[in-house]
UniProtKB/TrEMBL annotation:
It is found in: Periplasm. The keyword Signal applies. It holds the Pfam family LTXXQ. Its main location: periplasm. This is LTXXQ domain protein. Residues 1-20 form the signal peptide. InterPro entries: Cpx_auxiliary_protein, LTXXQ. It comes from Pseudomonas taiwanensis. Residues 80-95 have a biased composition (Basic and acidic residues). It comes from the Bacteria. Residues 75-97 are annotated as: Disordered. Gene3D superfamilies: 1.20.120.1490. The keyword Transcription does not apply. The lineage of its organism: Bacteria, Pseudomonadati, Pseudomonadota, Gammaproteobacteria, Pseudomonadales. Belongs to the CpxP/Spy family.
């Protein structure tokens, strides 16, 4: 349950961020093309950016682990309420993004959502199969 909840939280947030990307992909407006991104104004070398990216990735994993530990302590009803609230927030953001899009972009957005839902269902099916296989092995 806890891994599913964490996966759901990330699955809900990441596609929304990805779809907010400007048309044509990221912009490259000179040496500081990342704008307000952290460390964008420090003129970092490629090696420094990679090392910082690795550290930030580790920090994200640590945050996820800490969140998971505390979520596991919540009663099932609170976990379900949190899951429902996250889904409602995600749906609201999706509808707000969709409202900003042109009709042809809305069609593409809808197709991407369908593909994402299919991949998520496939992943959940795999996780269920894996859990069943592990249970039989014990």
């Amino acid at each position: 349950m806890r891994k599913t909840l964490i996966a759901l939280m990330f699955a809900a947030a990441l596609p929304t961020v990805a779809m907010a990307m400007p048309e044509g992909g990221p912009r490259h407006d000179g040496p500081h093309h990342r704008g307000d991104a952290p460390f964008a104004q420090l003129d970092l070398s490629r090696d420094q950016r990679q090392q910082i990216g690795k550290l930030m990735g580790e920090q994200m994993k640590q945050r996820r682990d800490i969140t998971e530990r505390y979520l596991n302590k919540l009663p099932a009803a609170d976990q379900k309420a949190m899951k429902d609230e996250i889904k409602a927030s995600h749906d609201k953001t999706d509808s707000q993004i969709r409202a900003l899009l042109k009709p042809e972009q809305q069609k593409q957005f809808d197709e991407l959502k369908k593909e994402r839902a299919a991949k998520q269902a496939e992943w959940q099916e795999f996780q269920a199969w894996k859990a069943e296989k592990d249970a039989k092995a014990q």
